[in-house]
Each structure stands twice: as structure tokens, then as C-alpha cells.
Amino acid sequence: MGKRLTQIATRTGDNGTTGLGDNTRVSKNSLRVHAMGDVDELNSHIGLLLCEDMPAAVRTLLVEIQQQLFNLGGELSIPGYELLKPEALLALDQALAGHNKALPRLQEFILPAGTRAAAQAHVCRTVARRAERAVVALGSEETLKDTPRQYLNRLSDLMFVLARVLNRYRTDGTVGDDVYWKSEKLARSQAE
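C-alpha cells predicted for Cobalamin adenosyltransferase (192 residues):
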């Protein structure tokens, strides 16, 4: 396959439009472009998360998720086309089940905090939710397949779980924990 991008500064978007993969031009403020941008931002945040120390299995999973998010972005850029396959959703479900099984039950709501890696995973979670909302908004105006919406919904859940995994991960052999919200309910249960 030849090189796809030969020139980045084309100036064709100077008028407020952008080209889609099917060679149509749309406003840079369209619902489709917002969804594409949110997915791209999510992928970038996952790239930043990958700069942190983490278990090898989590790293491998996140690299695969980046590939699938690129597929999702491609699918959004070509109306009616499918690049994100249902198998990608199944892989998220399997990862969720595996990582959840290894975690202790939650005592209370947790804060998006702890280690830098865990905090970045929470940023990824919130951006995944925004991307999901953008895809839902686009789906209310145009026909979309279900997999993109489902994938983003499941991915935000997985990023929450991975934040918990990353808060426990230490290279010195110790084990960390979640940062719990200091609610009245938790205070009462600890006092009993």
C-alpha cells in the first residue's frame, strides 16, 4: 500500500470544512466531526497513559485498544462503512471480566486519583464517555451501526477498572489501593 498522507497543510479546511473518507466535505462543527475528534482525543489520552509504568498485560490491551479506536475513527470518517468489528467489543468484555475478577469489591465511590497512571486512566474514562455521547448524538441524526456506541460504552467501564488496577500496581512489590470518597456512609461503616 502506498503512503496515504503526502501533505498535511493542504489549506482545504481554511473555509471551516473538512473532508471525510468518502471525499465529501462537511462543516468542522458537524456531529460527525465532533465524534471523530472525541475518539481521536481519547486515543491520544491512551497514548499518554502508555507512557506510564504498568503491567505488561495492561500495556498490550491498551495498544490493541488504540488500534481499534483508529478503526472507529475511520468508520466515523466514512459514512456507512464498517471498520470496528463486533470481535473488538467481545475483547473488551473479556478484559473487563478478567480484571474485575482480580479486584476487591468497592467499599464506596472512588475519586479519579491515586497514581499518575490511574488518574490518566480516569481521564481516558471521561473522554470515552464524551466520545460515546458524541456518537449517540450523531446516531440520532444519521444511521450508524451499534458497535461504535457499544464499544465506547464498554471502554469507559474498562478504563474505570484499569484505573483501579493501576492504583494497585507497584514495581517495589507493595500493593496500592483506590482513593475513596470520604462519604458519611463510609465513615459510619468504618466506625462500626
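Helices lie at 31-49, 56-77, 86-102, 116-141, 146-168, 184-191.
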